[in-house]
Write a structure and sequence with these properties.
Elements lengths: L13 H48 L1
């Protein structure tokens, strides 16, 4: 999709407005899903790093 510096919404037909609104809703939902997956992945990475660090500390204390 190309860059549009300015879009005059008043000149759009009702069908064009509806399809644009639907497109934006789909894009927003996809971005929310991607953000949720990213946060979930980062949480897993954080837990794995903490577990590895704790395991490393246990080895040193022996």
């Amino acid at each position: 999709m190309g860059f549009v510096p300015y879009l005059d919404f008043d000149k759009l037909t009702p069908d064009e407005k509806k399809s644009l609104r639907d497109l934006l809703k789909r894009e927003r939902d996809q971005l929310r899903d991607a953000l949720a997956l990213t946060e979930k992945g980062l949480a897993k990475l954080g837990k794995a790093a903490k577990a590895k660090k704790a395991k490393k500390k246990k080895k040193k204390s022996r």
